[in-house]
Amino acid sequence: MPIEDASADVRATFRNTEKYDVDDAPAYFDEVVIELAVTSPAAAANVRRLVTHAERGCHAAQSLAHPVPVHLTATLNQRPLS
Q1: How far, CA to CA in Å, does 24 sit from each of 12, 13, 15, 20, 30?
Q2: Structural domain that includes position 24
Q3: How many structural domains are present in the chain?
């Protein structure tokens, strides 16, 4: 399918008040909005199928839509930080 141009504008809303010691609200995204702009002579139905396929295959978007456990390990001077 010919694509002449494509761009994505990704924006998120979140509270960062804990960062500034205003309150203890957790620092996570409230919402993520992705606006995809495609320029193509292809039929809209074909572009829609491609966009749907790309969204399903996007690890970042799927992880945000379906929360997964996050594990943090840290080292200090190449030794585990406990």
Answers
A1: 20, 17, 10, 10, 15
A2: 5-80
A3: 1
